[in-house]
Amino acid sequence: MSKRIIIQFVIFCYTLISVPAMASLTLNGTRFIYNEKNKNIAVEIKNTSKSLYGGQIWIDNTIQPSHQVYFVPTPTFFKVGAGKKQLIRIMNVNNALPANKESLFWLNVQEIPPAPSADEGNVLALALNTQVKLIYRPQALGQGRENAEEQVILSGNILKNPTPYYFAIVGIFNGDKPVTLSDKVKKQIGQMAPFSEINLEKAIKGKISIQAIDDYGAFRTYKLN
User: Fold this and answer.
1) What is the rounded average pLDDT for all residues in the chain?
2) Domain 4-139: which topology?
3) 4-139 and 148-223 in the same fold
4) What are phi and psi of 147, to 5 degrees?
């Protein structure tokens, strides 16, 4: 009787640029924006392996009440052949989200590897759980998102986001030199919430700029006043 050891790795993509190469199921984005006016949005999942894979998709709340459901993916379980794609539809089913700021959720895709054949012997399979951001954007905020990161304010050691948008800041620069930050601060600025302040744990002066990931997963640099 062959044995299969399945090791699950949870990938937290706070500042994810791309899905790891070893993942069999890959997504067509590193973040997804759900505009209020949309009836649903599509997420494309591709099987890059040479085997049939199963998958499960679900959405986690962040600061929202844990018992509330805001988004439903369809289908939640699926099978996708080697080199094939699966289209997932995500629908907003709860209107009780703030209208004056964005809301953040986590979209999870769990791989379900194929069962081993009888002659494979002991097999080590990597069942990856890929996690990316799902951001709900109220309709009133749709026109002001472009270059909103330019409004970020640095005052001594405090970084302020005066806007209603979530920012994924991946670096702070003093001139051409990157500012060294603790892992705690890196995590906080990687998902900087609307109207929030972050203590950088050090005062920074000079010509300051930030590097952030935009709606399309691209790096962009913004100079701060």
Assistant:
1) 89
2) Immunoglobulin-like (2.60.40)
3) yes
4) 60, 25
Instruction: Dig out the tokens for 27 from the structure.
Output: 């997504």
Unique residue bearing structure tokens 């309709």: 139
pLDDT of residue 65 exceeding 70: yes
- Residue boundaries of the structural domains of the chain: 4-139, 148-223
Domain 148-223 CATH assignment equals 2.40.128.50: no
- Could you tell me where the beta strands, DSSP code E, fall in the chain? 4-12, 25-27, 31-35, 41-47, 53-61, 71-74, 77-80, 85-92, 103-112, 123-137, 153-155, 158-160, 168-174, 177-178, 197-199, 208-213, 219-223
pLDDT band at 119 (very low <50, low <70, confident <90, very high): low
Lowest-pLDDT range of 25-34, 37-46, 117-126:
117-126
Residues 223 and 188: their CA atoms lie apart, in Å, by 20
Concatenating the DSSP letter of every residue in 159-175 gives EE--SSS-BEEEEEEET
Output 119 or 200, whichever has higher pLDDT.
Answer: 200
CA atoms within 13 A on the CB side of 38: 17
161 touches 196 (CB < 8 A): yes
Locus of tokens 């330019």: 150
Q: What is the pLDDT of residue 6?
A: 38
Span 122-133, pLDDT tens digits: 666 667 899 999
What pTM value is reported for the model? 0.86
Percent of the chain at pLDDT > 70 equals: 86
How far apart, in Å, are the Cα atoms of 89 and each of 30, 76, 207, 210? 16, 10, 44, 34
